[in-house]
Amino acid sequence: MSGRNLKALSTATVVILIIGFALAIFWAPLDADQGFKQKIFYLHVPLAIVALIGFIAGGVEGFRQLRSGDRRHDANSYVFIHLSIVFGVAVLVTGAIWAKASWGHWWVWEEPTLVSFLIVFLLYCTYYPFRYAIEDRDRQARYASVFAITAGAFVPLNFMAVRMAESIIHPRVFASAEGSLPGSMLFAFLVCLVGVGLLWLTLVKVELAGKQASGQVSRLRRALSTDGQSGSVGGRIAPEMEAG
Amino acid sequence: MTPSRTAFAALLGKDLRTEIRTMRSLPAMVLFAITTFIIFRYGLDRTTLSGSLAGGVLWTTLLFAAILGINRVFVSEQEEGGFDAFRLAPVDRTVLFTAKAAALFIYLSVLELIVVPTFAVFFLPQWSGLLPLILVLVGANLGFAALGTLISSMAVNSRARDLLVPLLLLPLVVPLMIAATGASAPLLEAGAPSYEEFGTWLLVMGLYDGIFCLVGYAVFEFLLED
Amino acid sequence: MTEVENAVVLRGLGRDYGDLPALQDLDLDLPAGSSLVVLGPNGSGKSTLLRILSTLLRPTRGEATVLGYELPKESWKLRGQIGYLGHEPLLYQDLTGRENLELQGKLHGLSVEEANHRIDMDLEVMEMSRRADRRVNEYSAGMRQRIAICRAVLHRPKLLLLDEPDSNLDPEGRELARSLIGPGEGRTRVLVSHEPERARAEADAVLTLDRNGRAVELAS
Fold first, then answer.
1. Does the pLDDT of residue A200 top 50, yes or no?
2. What is the ipTM metric for this complex?
3. Closest CB from C56, C93, C107 relative to B80
4. Are C18 and A228 within 8 A, CB to CB?
5. Which residues are paired to C29 by β-bridges?
6. Whether residue C75 sits in one domain with residue C6
7. Helices marked H in chain A — which ranges?
8. Engineering a disulfide at C152: which of B169, B193, C79, C85 sits with its beta carbon 3.0 to 4.6 angstroms away?
9. CA-nearest residue of chain B to C82?
10. Distance CA B151, CA A146 (A)
11. Is C19 within 8 Å of chain A by CB?
């Protein structure tokens, strides 16, 4: 992606995010039960949705890596999962703040979506030590792809099981947040969702560009070393990109 | 190509024969489980358990005992060249997955054959829930076998095998454990066992088992390449 | 397999481990029925070459055709026609020598009678018949190597890939091994060795690799 496109994308991201949050705070009506505290919903839920889509997309890229053997898909898969984990931290923090504000506790087990998210988050955290424990680059790409596919299949299954446990063992107390929103709330929410999605996309592009640059640097370094022996040494978690 | 059934029988037979001869996995798993019961007895300060507490203790113990076995599934292949010998043979790659999963399923069943009655003797005031519990055990064993074989093959070729198996496995088996404890708790209730949501939880386990059997079957050959 | 003149054809073959090239730009034609000896210092890619030919390792670059099959696309057809004897004996330590060979026979689709017949014969040749029913972890390194040789040839492969087959063998064992994996009798062999004189004596062609995995000499 050229520098100008990236600049346009990041500008659009900032503008839409500002519009979205402005709409959410000043225009959308206050929630009848929770009042102003509920506004964090416009950040928390889009972050969670985008992070989960990123995890699944990482699995799809892992699948394409295995199908094609093209290491670029592994780089995509890595960046998707990496950024979704970063977003995941934000999801858990905003979730805790919301829980504290609404129910007086930093953590509520009765909220199955948040519990499910924590389990998924913990699983994806093992992606880093797993990658790091495999030295050979091709094998790392293949094994990481297998991880991404397995974990991707796990995400919906996990949400279903946790939700079922909650509804069977404790009949739901809290109505699902996305249940029936007034039109203006829904509109503000959708703008925020698009903004957070664009933010994720921008960060993906930035990181992939960085990977490409570091890939080129190490290829140049290899070309300069005459004996062909002194390539970079040591385990590397993040994949490098061939020039795209 | 060698017929898959021949290769499957040969590999499974090899594993069972080795285990009977060396007793490397099963006795450790059994000892671990029984000792864990004793720790729970004092940790919870209970001499009898029922309902969800009984289900929780039983499944936590079985899960951690299973991890001991899962850690060892591919160790001899890795250390003694069995992977290479298998990869040189004209055999469908997924046969190794099914043979290993079958061996693990058998280990877990034998483990439970010893450990679950021990659990009943230690803690359960009445045993009528144990018969339907067999269905839950089979459902969980299938999931453990499929996922455990997959995770074990992912971890065995890395530098941190013993660390990665529990790290990867624990979050992945959460749904399976939710379903297993959900189905077991009413069965282990003091008084008469109840079948509340029993079928639903078995269905969830079946779905889970199906998905991870398919995933493992589909991706396994990529873990064998070099 | 259709009749092919060259058992092994390599064009520009290369393999990297991470950033490090282990094998570079290798061209080779090996006629069926002949022996190639590969020489070179440690780390020159000799074992890498054997592992590629055996389908255990995928090439990074170039083309490899073995017994008429293109690697790695058709490697599944090639398996079962190659006998690979690497650094590791590829034997399960807790099985006996005979059980290991029986497992090998089953994996290669031999009938039980056929496998038993060959196992008895080969064990006799390697003078291991009496000790075949002991577990491999009780064997000395030389005995392990003798069983490993039986394992490599049990399915009667068309191409033998031998990585220092004499290692751990005493002179007697080397002599016995000749009848299973030695030159002649129409065998096609690729042999990695550290002994140039002996190698040249039984080779039809010699390939010498340098420290960077490049061919410095290909002599017939």
1. yes
2. 0.92
3. C93
4. no
5. C9
6. yes
7. 3-22, 41-68, 71-103, 112-125, 127-132, 137-169, 183-224
8. C85
9. B88
10. 10
11. yes
